[in-house]
UniProtKB/TrEMBL annotation:
Gene3D superfamilies: Vaccinia Virus protein VP39. It catalyses: 3 S-adenosyl-L-methionine = nicotianamine + 3 S-methyl-5'-thioadenosine + 3 H(+). GO terms for biological process: nicotianamine biosynthetic process; phloem transport; pollen development; pollen tube growth. It comes from Brassica napus. The keyword Transferase applies. Synthesizes nicotianamine, a polyamine which serves as a sensor for the physiological iron status within the plant, and/or might be involved in the transport of iron. It is an enzyme of class 2 (transferase). This is Nicotianamine synthase. InterPro entries: Nicotian_synth (IPR004298), SAM-dependent_MTases_sf (IPR029063). It comes from the Eukaryota. Keywords: S-adenosyl-L-methionine, Transferase. Belongs to the nicotianamine synthase (NAS)-like family. PANTHER family: NICOTIANAMINE SYNTHASE 2, NICOTIANAMINE SYNTHASE 3.
Length: 320
């Protein structure tokens, strides 16, 4: 059955028409309810929906506009809660649980940390997070719970976001030292990108394929050989909420793993390593094939046997 006739897709289209007619995307009972319904409609992973196979132009246009609306609403939501949490007299980091998606970030950051640990042999000393936002929860959770000695440089195009974000960590003795903020478009961040062991690219940086690939190409140009790039993608119905990052978009990188969660962690995680590094990339090439251009690489999905049922993990091997 064509994807556009799918009942769930019809529900998404209906939610889209309500959301796109909203006066404002700022948090309110109505906005929260609609986006809550949208997320829960897109969460199921037991569907064979592949948005890349949708031919109906109207549905394709709807999807790209919906991704932008979701990104705008996410920005307002972060701004709203960062202002509230940042207003506490004591350490705002004691109140992060007030943010409605805090638990999702705890899980997503743990997943990203585990994948990072699987593919690197040393603890990163410096990480860049591109698109950190007013609520830089990924950086905060990684710094607080997983990487106690790592400095995290947060880049955001929006100075307001950085003002709110730095206020959140300002009263924390530890993170006020280890969280640095830079206001810039990722495409203007040039010098210094080669000093990071790991670079994260937020899902909302590059909301369509063209701008996502542009950001990746820029990072490939300026990152150190052998450095790791962590990206967020989407799979199945969740690709109505966020852009997809394909292995083909990562020229100049060795794609190590693409991980599709099946719980309420919405984003898929893509981990790749910039080619040319001498140490790890070399050893990793011994263990695994370097991804050839995607029309030559055979992607096989294997059920993740690490006790987490149904998650999908894609390993990459070139066709022998
Ligand atoms: C809302 S945050 C989401 C990240 C989330 N806070 C986290 O911790 O994972 C995404 C941010 O990306 C920023 N952004 C979008 N495009 C960008 C670009 N080209 N360069 C730098 N930042 C960008 C937006 O200003 C926004 O604040």
């Amino acid at each position: 059955m064509a994807c556009e006739n799918n009942l769930v897709v019809k529900q998404i289209i209906d939610l889209y028409s309500q959301i796109s007619n909203l006066e404002s995307l700022k948090p309110s009972k109505n906005v929260d309810t609609l986006f809550g319904q949208l997320v829960s409609t897109c969460l199921p992973t037991d569907t064979d929906i592949d948005v890349t196979k949708i031919h109906d132009e109207k549905v394709k246009d709807m999807r790209s506009h919906l991704i932008k609306l979701c990104g705008e609403a996410e920005g307002y939501l972060e701004q709203h809660f960062s202002t509230i949490i940042g207003s506490f007299e004591d350490n705002p980091l004691n109140h992060l649980h007030i943010f409605p998606y805090y638990n999702n970030y705890l899980k997503l950051s743990k997943l990203e940390f585990d994948l990072l640990a699987e593919h690197t042999s040393h603890v990163p000393t410096k990480i860049a997070f591109i698109g950190s936002g007013p609520m830089p929860l990924t950086s905060i959770v990684l710094a607080k719970f997983h990487l106690p000695n790592t400095t995290i440089h947060n880049f955001d195009i929006d100075s307001e976001a950085n003002i709110l974000a730095s206020n959140l960590v300002s009263r924390d003795l530890d993170l006020s030292e280890r969280m640095i903020f830079h206001t810039t478009d990722v495409l203007n961040a040039k010098e210094g990108l080669d000093q990071y062991d790991v670079v994260f690219l937020a899902a909302l940086v590059g909301m369509d394929k063209e701008s996502k690939v542009k950001a990746i190409e820029h990072l490939e140009k300026h990152m150190a050989p052998g450095a790791v790039l962590m990206l967020r993608s989407a799979h199945g119905l969740r690709a109505f909420l966020y852009p997809i990052v394909d292995s083909c978009d990562l020229k100049g990188f060795e794609v190590l793993t693409i991980y599709h969660p099946s719980d309420d962690v919405v984003n898929s995680v893509v981990i790749a390593r910039k080619l040319g590094g001498l140490s790890e990339a070399h050893s990793s090439q011994i263990e695994r094939c370097v991804v050839m251009p995607c029309n030559c690489s055979k992607i096989h999905a294997i059920m993740n046997s690490r006790g987490i049922k149904k998650n999908m993990i894609e390993e990459f091997t070139a066709i022998e």
